[in-house]
Amino acid sequence: MKLTATVAQTSSVLLDTPATVERALGLMKEAAAQGAQVLVFPEAFIGGYPKGADFHIDLGARTADDRDTWIGTLQHIALEGRCFVLSACQHLRRADFPSDRMNNRLPQAPETVLMRGGSAIIDPMGKILAGPVRDQDAVLSAEFDLDTIAMAQLDFDVARAANGSWRDAIQSETTGHA
Predict the structure, then answer these.
(1) Triad 78, 67, 102: Cα angle to 5°
(2) In angstroms, rounded to a whole number, what is the distance separating the alpha carbons of residues 80 and 126?
(3) CB-based contacts of 75, cutoff 8 Å, min separation 6
(4) What is the DSSP string of 94-145?
(5) In CATH, what class is 2-175?
(6) How far, in whole angstroms, is CA 165 from its chain's centroid?
(7) pLDDT in tens, 17-58
C-alpha cells in the first residue's frame, strides 16, 4: 500500500493559539493539495516550543535537536525499528518570541536563528527520502510503500534479535538447554 506523508517545518505563532491553528489549517490545505495523506507537525506546535524561555519556572529537558548529526540518529532509529521516521522540526527565529511576555535568555537580534529545522523523512532501511532542510520554513513530502516495512523486517528481525536466535529457543524448549 502506497502512502504520501508530509512533515511541516515551521514555527508556532507563539502565545497566539488561534493564529497558530490558522497556520496549521493552511499547511494542511497545502499538504492535501500535494496529495499528502499524513501530515506531521513539530513537537509542541499548537502551544509553542519555549526555546530559551523559562517562564520564571524550571522546565524539563527539551528533545528538539537541529544539529547536523541528528540525521544519523534518525537513520539509526529507522534501521533499528525497521520503520519509517517522519521528523518534523521547527524553524524558529528570535522574532517569533515576544520578549515582553516571556522571560528568556535569547539574543535580541530578530533574525537570529534559534532552531534551524532539519526535518526529514527516512525509510526503514535508513534511506533519506526527503530533507533535511535547514534555515527556512518548508513542507517536505515523500511517497512510500508500506510493504517496505515487511521487506525490511526480513532483513533484520528486531523481535528475534532482541530475544536471541529462534534455533536457540527451539533447542532450549526441546532439550532443556541451549
Answers:
(1) 115
(2) 9
(3) 85, 122, 126, 128
(4) GGGS-TTTS-B---S-TT-EEEEEEEEEE-TTS-EEEEEEESS-EEEEEEEE
(5) alpha beta
(6) 32
(7) 999 999 999 999 999 999 999 999 998 888 776 666 655 555
**CB–CB of 121/148 below 8 Å?**
no
CA distances from 102 to 51, 53, 54, 160 (A): 11, 6, 8, 50
* Distances 87 to 25, 43, 110, 143, 174 between C-alpha atoms, Å: 19, 10, 26, 15, 45
- What is the torsion angle, in degrees rounded to the nearest 10, for the CA atoms of residue 155, residue 126, residue 159 and residue 1? -80
Residue carrying C-alpha cell 516571556 = 102
Model-level pTM?
Answer: 0.75
The three three-digit cell numbers of residue 27, written as one number? 499547511
Which set of grid coordinates corresponds to residue 88? Answer: 518534523
